[in-house]
Design goal:
CATH topology of the largest domain: Rossmann fold
CATH superfamily of the largest domain: Translation initiation factor eif-2b, domain 2
Largest sheet: 7 strands, mixed
Radius of gyration: 19 Å
Shape: globular
Structural class: alpha/beta
Number of strands: 16
Strand content: 15-25%
Helix content: 25-40%
Order of helices and strands: EEEHHHHHEHEHEHEEEHEEHEEEEE
Length: 337
C-alpha cells in the first residue's frame, strides 16, 4: 500500500516532521536542524509513536553532531545534547534504544551516523510490512478468512512509523486482503490521537471506520460489535506486559471478558528484555493543562488537580499475542518474549 504522506523525512540536511498537533485540519511540515526545537517537537507530540520516535532520535544524533560542529561545542556539550534527546519521552523504549545504539558509532563520523539513521528508517518500513503480514495471518488463523470488525486505540499507523504502521499496519493488510468490514477507532483522550490521526489515516486509505468515545469501547466489545482489538506498544517487558496509550488496559479487560482476541503489535525494538515485568516500566505523567484546557479553552475549574498518565500497562495475561516483525508470540498461551 502506497502512503501519500511521511511523518518523518530527511531533506536538504535537515529533519522534516509532519506536525501531528495540527492534524486533521492542517497538513504542515516543520524542519529541524538544532537540538532544542527537536526536543520540544518530541515533547509536544509533533512526532509520536514508538517506532517514529526511534527514527527521530537517530536523526536527532546527526542534528546534534551538526550543531556541535557549527557552534564549536565541547564533547561534553554534545553528549549532554544527545542525552536530552534520549530522555525527551521516557516511556517509549525505541527513542532511548535508537539514540544509545547510534551514539556508539559517532567515532565513525557524521556521514556514517547519517547512513545508520537512514538504515533505521528503512528497517522500520520493512518491519511494518512484516508485522502486517504476520498479524493478518494470525487473525485469519484465529477467526477464519472472513471480513472482521476491528477496534484500535490511539494511533499506530504511518504517522507513528516510517511504514504502514504497527496495529494499523495489520488492519491495512487485512483491508488489502478484503477482510475488513469496519474499524472502530477510540478517540483516545485527552489529545484525541484516534479521532484526529487514526481516522485521518483510515479515511486516506479508504478503510470503512467510525470513531467512538473511549468510554464506549467496553460496550462495543461486550455487545458483540467487535471481532478483535489491536493496539501498539511503547514498551513491552520480557513477560509480555505492555505499555501503551492510556485506555488500552480497559480495552484489554473488556476483550478478555468477551472472549475475543486482543493483540499488541510492535517492532522488536519496542521489546525491553532488560525488564522482567510491567512493574518496571516508567509511566510518563503529563501536565494538568491537557485535561483542564482544550485548544486553549478552559474546560475545568482553575486549580483542579488531575491524574494524567500518558500510558497504562496491560498485564500479559490479558494479551492474546504480541505481533512483531519476526513472529507472533503466543502470550495468551504462556510464551514470553
Amino acid at each position: 500500500m502506497v502512503i501519500p504522506y511521511k511523518a518523518i523525512d530527511w531533506k536538504n540536511e535537515k529533519l522534516v516532521l509532519l506536525d501531528q498537533t495540527l492534524l486533521p485540519v492542517q497538513e504542515a511540515y516543520n524542519t529541524y536542524d538544532t537540538v532544542l526545537p527537536l526536543i520540544d517537537a518530541i515533547q509536544r507530540l509533533v512526532v509520536r509513536g514508538a517506532p517514529a520516535l526511534g527514527v527521530t532520535g537517530a536523526y536527532g544524533v546527526v542534528i546534534a553532531m551538526d550543531q556541535a560542529l557549527r557552534e564549536h561545542w565541547s564533547s561534553a556539550q554534545l553528549e549532554k545534547a544527545i542525552d536530552d534527546i534520549r530522555d525527551a519521552r521516557p516511556t517509549a523504549v525505541n527513542l532511548a534504544w535508537a539514540v544509545e545504539k547510534i551514539r556508539t558509532r559517532i567515532s565513525e563520523g557524521r556521514d556514517a551516523v547519517l547512513a545508520i539513521a537512514h538504515q533505521f528508517a528503512e528497517e522500520d518500513r520493512q518491519s511494518s510490512t512484516g508485522m502486517g503480514n504476520i498479524g493478518a495471518d494470525w487473525l485469519i488463523n484465529a477467526l477464519g478468512k472472513k471480513p472482521l470488525t476491528l477496534l484500535t486505540h490511539c494511533n499506530t499507523g504511518s504517522l507513528a512509523t516510517t511504514g504502514t504502521g504497527t496495529a494499523l499496519g495489520v488492519i491495512r493488510e487485512m483491508h488489502t486482503r478484503g477482510l475488513v468490514k469496519e474499524v472502530y477507532a477510540d478517540e483516545s483522550r485527552p489529545l484525541l490521537q484516534g479521532a484526529r490521526l487514526t481516522a485521518w489515516e483510515l479515511m486516506k486509505s479508504g478503510i470503512p471506520h467510525r470513531i467512538q468515545p473511549d468510554g464506549a469501547a467496553a460496550m462495543a466489545i461486550m455487545t458483540g460489535r467487535i471481532d478483535a482489538a489491536l493496539i501498539g506498544a511503547d514498551r513491552i517487558a520480557h513477560n509480555g506486559d505492555s505499555a501503551n496509550k492510556i485506555g488500552s488496559l480497559g480495552v484489554a479487560l473488556a476483550c478478555h471478558e468477551a472472549g475475543i482476541p486482543f493483540l499488541v503489535v510492535a517492532p522488536e525494538s519496542s521489546v525491553d528484555r532488560t525488564i522482567s515485568s510491567g512493574k518496571d516500566i516508567h509511566i510518563e505523567i503529563r501536565g494538568d493543562e491537557e485535561l483542564t484546557f482544550f485548544k486553549g479553552i478552559q474546560v475545568a475549574p482553575i486549580g483542579t488537580k488531575t491524574f494524567n498518565p500518558a500510558f497504562d500497562v496491560t498485564p500479559a495475561k490479558y494479551i492474546s499475542a504480541v505481533i512483531t516483525e519476526l513472529k507472533a508470540y503466543e502470550i495468551g498461551k504462556g510464551e514470553t518474549l
